[in-house]
User: Fold these one by one.
Assistant:
Number 1:
Amino acid sequence: MKAGWIGLGNMGLPMARNLLKAGHEVLAHNRTRSRAESLQAEGGKVAATPAEAATAPILATMVADDQALEEIIFGSGKVLETLPRGAIHVSMSTISVALSRRLAAAHAKAGQVYVSAPVFGRPEAAMAAKLFVVACGPPEAVRACQPLFDAVGQRTFVMSEDAPVANVIKLTGNFLIASTIESFGEAFALVRKYGVEPKQFLDLLTSSLFSAPVHKTYGTLIAEDKYQPVGFKVPLGLKDVRLVLAAAESASVPLPLANLIHDRFVTLMANGMQDSDWATIARLAAENAGLKPMG
Amino acid sequence: MKAGWIGLGNMGLPMARNLLKAGHEVLAHNRTRSRAESLQAEGGKVAATPAEAATAPILATMVADDQALEEIIFGSGKVLETLPRGAIHVSMSTISVALSRRLAAAHAKAGQVYVSAPVFGRPEAAMAAKLFVVACGPPEAVRACQPLFDAVGQRTFVMSEDAPVANVIKLTGNFLIASTIESFGEAFALVRKYGVEPKQFLDLLTSSLFSAPVHKTYGTLIAEDKYQPVGFKVPLGLKDVRLVLAAAESASVPLPLANLIHDRFVTLMANGMQDSDWATIARLAAENAGLKPMG
């Protein structure tokens, strides 16, 4: 497969690298050109502009937020003008349901095809090609993207022919992760105040009812009260919960727990924690209980 | 081992039965005598009163709440007066941290030994001897109870020499289960409003980051929007979140998510749902979003 790739951040770079490893041609663009050049040793080609990357029959985008993607597709990036008729834009970023809906309409109007395929997994999972891909869009186009999904992920879930549904699912999944962090944060603060050793409590949880990857990954950070390395920063966590609340409001779904979590992220922002991992919301429960950092 | 057993409800009856199956002598008392008699075919002996059950060197109690246990130990049950010096009371009920603290002191004063050993698992797990036991108390006494724990559970976690810590851990675990129910309730309400098939969404969750028993057990109830059979009733869920909040307040730990869940249970009580399973709090998120029951 020949694929254009836009966005080589913490997630995009290892994903594009895995695409190359799987034997595909990759024409990569990144705002900071040196990150695209870093793929040349593995056979990647550098696209000077987003429009140049959009000359491929499949263009994948993996960028930070709505604003970045809007600029690339509708703004100075000129992808909408450049992408050939019949070519596929597969959007893998975590963006709003509203933007995904707008992209589906705009690409359709331009005779192009839009697939939404956000992923679950932190940068370590991206490096190991162990992401989970949620793919929605026209079935034929989703099938055409499958080699790309196979190169970056361990499993693809095809959930709907309506592309924006993938974004609803991705945002809902991130809400469930944040909920786990919040609940573990409160639970560990409580047992610590009663003298329980946090790692022993984590062993109890993960050996019994709470044995999922989400419990082990975030439980370890919380039990050690150590939120390094930073895999997913606070402002991205805030963005995602804001987007899930927007998607929920537009479908008339009250989400009291998501609102509580939104306030947690706002609290971190107010306290200068914007460079911390989003799991740091768990530290708020400990701090509110008068516990000093263990680190 | 010769054990007295008080309390033969949904949980206590299968636990006492498993104790008999493992070859122990069981002297069982229940307020409704017929439930104790139902153990006779398997070799169980009936104790007419709590005090009679307390003639054994180890007495296990598995009752509904603080009030029931107080009545048995301190009130008309007269166990505190009857239990021999050096004998062990192992309390397996989900009770308050405050009552557990009071029991530890009272038994010590009477020259008796108190072990706190609440369990995780629904009645199905009790029947299958697959409970998880959290045991705290004097180490020698905990060791003496181990054959009993082995007969009813799949694993015992010995967490502290301070007996009431076991109750903190049990209540915190139930809070984490209720948090999972609440977060899944909100998540499923949202994706349903976007046309996602709930079982397909559950498959995605349990095949990726959310693969723990707590996700599968409660996710299945929520995806099917069917809360039968009733394993754990709403008033018991309300009691446990009230007790976790009390334990948290007495140790100065704010728990915003536990407060949210407390309100969910209060809402169910206000709407005549006291005979429903506690997982029904998930239906509130769906109802608030205008979704009709699927069942």
Number 2:
Amino acid sequence: MPRITVRGLSVDQVCQMSESLVEQLAAICDCETDNFTLECNTHPSIFAGKIVPAYPFIEVAWFERGPAIRDQVAKAITDHVLALGIPEVEVAFTFYAENGYYINGISCG
Amino acid sequence: MPRITVRGLSVDQVCQMSESLVEQLAAICDCETDNFTLECNTHPSIFAGKIVPAYPFIEVAWFERGPAIRDQVAKAITDHVLALGIPEVEVAFTFYAENGYYINGISCG
Amino acid sequence: MPRITVRGLSVDQVCQMSESLVEQLAAICDCETDNFTLECNTHPSIFAGKIVPAYPFIEVAWFERGPAIRDQVAKAITDHVLALGIPEVEVAFTFYAENGYYINGISCG
């Protein structure tokens, strides 16, 4: 955690941006790079009766860190995706409650 | 967005209902059909020690639009799934906060 | 529902723990075992430019049942994962609103 799920990018594209992106996120969040997990969602996307390329969309699931950090994280992700030559991306944040998050059985809340 | 994730249906079944469903949802939500993304979750489902068919379940992640629209969207999805000959389906809605949703780096909130 | 999504374990490992885990969860939640769905997320995990094993992480999406039940469910899941010889696991709970959950088109709220 933070848990970052990427949709609409290839595994190669996610690999390509992963190192620089995670270093930047770790600096913004003031934590270690190995706290971040990047998952590449490869499920088929369907439109008008057939499989189509998925729209670029990235979801960040984490504990709420406030709007200033969130804006910076959204910008870092967006910049990295656009730098791959992808013209558009949406980034959504969802929040875990600390008392509903358990590490080895111990609640964080 | 809205982002619709389908579980327990085959890719062919999702393709089959996709065009009519998305047209109906666009009419209910008063937006363009290309706002909707349909993702077909193909991860293995496990019960009692082995892989089994997944239970039909559809999740809609979007901005809150109130109960009247939500009821109509749930009905449209349910009707389309039942029309495939599937006897049961569950539909769940989750909500993005507008200030936690960024399009090309710009917050919607 | 409850919907349990497992990440960072192999399909074989999820199969191995599934029967005992679901029996224990059904006892804790006082419901039938067939209410539980176990999904094994097999999407690639990426770190530092390459595909790596995913960190063991389990998400439970359900209706809120309060902290006592939640603690017991977290413990049951954690115990089962650790018993596979996996040294660490995180368990996160997310909540559906009852009025945003529809069974065959009928809202639960």
